[in-house]
Amino acid sequence: MDAATVEWLFADRALALLYLSSATCVIYDHLTTLDVEVELIWKKPRQTAVQPLFFVNRYVGDSRFIAVILGYLNAIVLSSMQAIMIYRLSSMYNNDWKITAFLFIALVLEMAGITVVQIVASRVRVPIPKPAPGISQCAGMFSPPWMFTIWIPIVCFEVLVLSLTLSRAIHHYRSTRASQESWLSPLQWNNPESLTYILLRDSIMLPFISVVICLSNIFISVHLPYLVSQMGICVASFSPCIVGSRLILNLREAYYQPFIYECNIGTNLEDEIEASGFMNNLDLNDIPNIPINNILLA
Question: What one-character-per-residue DSSP string does the chain give?
Fold first, then answer.
């Protein structure tokens, strides 16, 4: 067995371990947030479009071990995550129908671009060279060398979402300029319950992660070997299962009380005392220039 064969087998084993570890991370995320999911998603009496999007994004992606429908499920999970981000961004713009319509049109165009690339690529037959002496692959064809273009519609949409999010965040920063010292204080950045922390984590960080993943996959597909590109696709395939559902759970955990407290509102004097204490300790600098009812994702 020569060095090329050993190197290929090692890379193939590394790819298998990466898929296993990525799937383990997704399952761990589902298990550790199951109680929060039940409390904040399924016990809510109000049914919204976000709940089926949450289910598709969180659990349909877990079925992607079925290789025959892998490509279709990837597109479904990705589009559900992006639809969740559209709802979030729409709430930041006070549910402006123009922004919402613009984003959904952009999402449709993105899915159309992905579909066109996949259809054209499926008609291009590329013979498979043996990766190393004595090794053959269980596949009918390689992806054409220009297959990396499938990431271009995705990265364009993600950059659009990130740009609109940053624009709204900058607008909010300027609108609170009089109190910017407290808004930018280290205490605000490190406090999980502060507006600054929530905006950074859910409105900016998650779209930024998506952009980085897309750009990384374009670079890997163009400049690095085939197996390395498969590793990038592995990370990109599993990340929407976590990013989309985490976005909903984080926001609902920040703005919703637990279900048991909702059932007991007004039943005793202690609840009223706690509510009064909360209002007395409330820092008005933490309140965004966005109606609270709009910023909730449901």
Answer: --HHHHHHHHHHHHHHHHHHHHHHHHHHHHHHTHHHHIIIIIS-SS--THHHHHHHHHHGGGGTT-GGGHHHHHHHHHHHHHHHHHHHHHHHTTT-HHHHHHHHHHHHHHHHHHHHHHHHHHT---PPPPSBTTB--S-S-PPPTTGGGGHHHHHHHHHHHHHHHHHHHHHHHHHTGGGHHHHTSHHHHH-TTSHHHHIIIIIIIHHHHHHHHHHHHHHHHHHS-HHHHHHHHHHHHHHHHHHHHHHHHHHHHHH---HHHHHTTTSSHHHHHHHHHHHHT--GGGS-SS-HHHHS--
Q: Which of 83, 65, 47 is nearest to 245 (CA)?
A: 83
Q: What pTM value is reported for the model?
A: 0.65
Fold of 8-130+140-175+192-275: Rhopdopsin 7-helix transmembrane proteins (1.20.1070)
pLDDT digits (tens, 9 = 90+) for 60-102: 655 555 554 566 667 777 788 888 888 878 877 888 888 889 9
pLDDT band at residue 202 using 50, 70 and 90 as cut-offs: low
Q: What is the pLDDT of residue 59?
A: 73
